[in-house]
Design goal:
This protein is of the alpha+beta class. Helix content is 18%, strand content 30%. It has four helices and eight strands; from the N terminus they run E-H-H-E-E-E-E-E-E-E-H-H.
Length: 176
């Protein structure tokens, strides 16, 4: 199935978009979610690979997102570890609800909500607590789907963007 898709490894341009400041460009949150949809996360140490289907993005500060990460030193996804990519920390984040797979950036947390294992035959996993992946800022490579990236760039270039798609708006809404 994936042979019909084109992927590229996350680079500085992609990392820059994922780290844009939501204070001045709130519409960028939609571009971040679209850009990571369809991406592949691969742990280069153990060969685990996952196709990311669904991503929810949350701003880091209360002024841009009431559902922000309520970070403490122990649970923050912004780690002291030097990451493989500039200002991106793929990690397992411990919360009071359990462990969650997150890609942390300077401006947001990208919560992975649905994955499909590529390295072994397993059923897709749905929900932030329904799966395990050995994510590590130093050992997780991220490959971006070219079609999703093109859509993300289109979203980023339109300051009036208020959703990823113009249909199913209720389905795209998070908790109010």
């Amino acid at each position: 199935m994936l042979s019909g898709y084109q992927y590229f490894e996350l680079d500085k341009t992609t990392a820059l978009l994922l780290n844009k400041d939501w204070t001045h460009e709130l519409y960028v949150k939609f571009a971040c979610a679209q850009g990571l949809a369809g991406s592949i996360l691969m742990n280069v140490n153990n060969g685990e690979a996952n196709l990311v289907n669904t991503v929810e993005v949350y701003g880091r500060t209360k002024s841009v997102d009431i559902h922000r990460e309520l970070s403490t030193l122990a649970t923050s996804s912004i780690l002291t570890t030097t990451p493989m990519y500039p200002n991106l920390w793929p990690c397992i984040q411990s919360t009071r609800d359990g462990s969650k797979l997150v890609i942390g950036t300077q401006s947001c947390d990208c919560l992975i909500m649905l994955i499909v294992r590529l390295d072994r035959n397993e059923e897709p996993k749905v929900g932030p607590l329904a799966f395990y992946f050995a994510a590590s800022p130093k050992h997780t490579k991220i490959f971006i789907d070219q079609d999703s990236w093109t859509k993300a760039k289109d979203i980023e270039s339109n300051e009036s963007t208020q959703s990823i798609e113009p249909f199913n708006l209720v389905g795209q809404a998070r908790q109010l």
